[in-house]
Specification:
By secondary structure, the protein is of the alpha+beta class. It folds into two domains: about 50 residues, Ubiquitin-associated (UBA) domain (Helicase, Ruva Protein, domain 3); about 170 residues, Elongation factor Ts, dimerisation domain (Tetrahydropterin Synthase, Chain A, 2-Layer Sandwich). The chain has twelve helices and seven strands.
Length: about 300
């Protein structure tokens, strides 16, 4: 057996499937989590989980905007306690401001950038680790900009101004007034925070992700026993549905649950008397894509006593 009881529990929490179903899926996939999750979905025992919805690390996301440019930065810590530390919050805030002046989204270059008060961002991070006594990592950054218009920042459940666990930036290109764009941008940002879009439009969706969804859809269709041409239509329909639900511009606006975001933007432009383009966005959720190690304290004690 290539997995433990803790692994079964973790897969159950990830998918919502039953304990025995999770154990069987891990048996069949020799402990491969991704394959086990897919197997459960093929059997209709698990919902399509979005990794971005699973917070698996502590720390803070910071957002900052200057003129027509905005940036989001994620800094991880080991515990939520450190995320509430004033020194740590000041570091994330200052680093995000430094990132506004960067020429690229290269995190290593950001570490080498000058930090307010002297030294580099990397030096300040090292000092943080030494003085706070907990490992911290500058994980990622992403910037957006427009030639003419606004970049609207939004922080969901902010821990402090422009600091929190879900940071969003919305880039709107337009000649419309700042007030109009700010209002629209805030509404779209709140939608993005809640709806977990994976790309701006269907063409931008990760092709590896699409291939994985297609494989799952093909296996489901195959189990239906229907003719090949019907199965092909079932697969195409499933992929089209997936793309529609995960591309921002085709998602239904969370406020009314019926209007696609593309249409919301178009209507706002008509009301303003000038075209508005949703050019880009950023959604950083703290810890997305990081699997947190689950410690079995009892097992560790038993192993220590036995060893």
């Amino acid at each position: 057996m290539a997995y433990t009881a803790a692994d079964v529990k973790k897969l159950r929490e990830m998918t919502g499937a039953g304990m025995m179903d999770c154990k069987k899926a891990l048996d069949e996939t020799d402990g491969d989590f991704a394959a086990a999750e897919d197997a459960l979905r093929v059997k209709g025992l698990a919902a399509a989980a979005k990794k971005s919805s699973r917070t698996a690390a502590e720390g803070l996301v910071g957002v900052a905007v200057s003129g027509t440019r905005g940036v989001a930065v994620e800094v991880n810590s080991e515990t939520d306690f450190v995320a509430k530390n004033e020194q740590f919050q000041n570091f994330v805030r200052n680093t995000t401001e430094v990132a506004l002046g960067a020429t690229s989204d290269d995190i290593e270059a950001l570490k080498d950038a000058a930090y307010p008060g002297g030294g580099t961002v990397g030096d300040a991070l090292t000092n943080n680790v030494a003085t706070i006594g907990e490992n911290q990592q500058l994980r990622r950054m992403k910037s957006v900009s427009v030639a003419n218009g606004v970049v609207v920042p939004y922080m969901h459940n902010a821990a402090a101004p422009n600091l929190g666990k879900i940071g969003v930036l919305v880039a709107l290109e337009s000649d419309a007034s700042a007030d109009v764009l700010d209002t629209l941008g805030k509404q779209i940002a709140m939608h993005i925070a809640a709806a977990f879009p994976l790309a701006l439009n269907a063409d931008d969706l990760d092709q590896e992700l699409i291939a994985r969804e297609r494989k799952i859809a093909e296996e489901k269709a195959s189990e239906s026993g229907k003719p090949a041409e019907v199965q092909a239509k079932m697969v195409d329909g499933a992929i089209a549905k997936f793309a529609k639900e995960n591309a921002l511009l085709s998602q239904l606006f969370v406020i009314d649950n019926k209007t696609p975001i593309a249409q919301v933007v178009e209507q706002a432009g008509k009301a303003a008397g000038t075209k508005i383009v949703l050019k880009d966005y950023v959604r950083f959720q703290l810890g997305e894509g990081i699997e947190k190690e689950v410690s079995d304290f009892a097992a560790e004690v038993a192993a220590a006593v036995g060893g």
